[in-house]
Amino acid sequence: MKTFVVIGLGRFGSAIATELSALGHEVLAMDIHEEPVQRIADQVTHAVAGDARDPAVLKALGVRNYDCAIVAVGDDVGNSTLITLNLKDLGIREVISKAQSHVHRKVLEKIGADRVVFPEHEMGVKLAQGLSSSNVLNFIEVSEDFGILELAAPASWRGKSLKELDVRNRHHVTIIAIRKGSDQALDVAPGADYKLEQGDNVVALGRSEDINRLHEVE
């Protein structure tokens, strides 16, 4: 088990904090506002409201004893930079910071961030790569985080029922329809016993990052 501190509890920070906690790690989630802290309190080890721009606050929380810090404050370059600098001065082993632009990334790298992530850019690149795959037929963005993807059923899925494939647990997406290969009729909400056939297309709903991984299934 590793120990993490996640600073900034927007969509990105909250997702990281809750997933790390679900994976069995100790997580301190922190935000300057009380509301996101209360929202996530039951899903992480510790959740506190505090100003990470103040080194004294970070010291009082014992942040220097954590293995890794994630700075998910990406909406203000100055705040993100100052928090990253504070964490490096405290001697945290690994500091990962979120950037909102390429210039922001360069600033964070200059002040010593061990890793800089640019999630919007990286997700866009990965999604584009996925959509360029020959078995991806259509993509609809439902929100910033979710989408619906239609793709040709992978060869390894053919002849198996939806129950056998257990796509929701294995790939974290939901099959909401099947476009049947014989006549291209759309079967909405297919039953668990439906067996995929040659020529079938799968329509799946899920988080963009999970949906994008489906084109890797052979």
Describe the structure.
The protein has helices spanning 11-22, 34-40, 55-60, 77-90, 102-110, 119-131, 162-165, 167-171, 208-213, and strands spanning 3-7, 26-31, 46-49, 68-71, 94-98, 115-117, 136-141, 146-152, 173-179, 186-188, 201-207. The model has no long low-confidence stretch (mean pLDDT 86). It starts with a strand and ends in a 5-residue tail after the last helix. It contains nine helices and eleven strands. Strands 3-2-1-4-5-6 form a six-stranded parallel beta sheet, sandwiched between helices. The protein has a five-stranded antiparallel beta sheet with strand order 7-8-11-9-10. With 218 residues, the chain is an alpha/beta fold. The radius of gyration is 21 Å and the shape is elongated.
Q: What structural category characterises the helix and strand content?
A: alpha/beta
Overall pLDDT: 86
What is the global morphology?
elongated
Spatial strand arrangement across the major sheet? 3-2-1-4-5-6
Distance between the termini: 33 Å
In helices, the fraction of residues equals 25-40%
Question: Biggest sheet, in brief?
Answer: 6 strands, parallel
Number of strands: 11
Q: Please, how many helices?
A: 9
User: What oligomeric state do the depicted chains represent?
Assistant: single chain
Beta-strand content: 25-35%
Give me the strand/helix succession: EHEHEHEHEHEHEEHHEEEH
Q: Low-confidence parts, pLDDT < 50 over ≥5 residues?
A: none
What is the gyration radius calculated from CA atoms? 21 Å
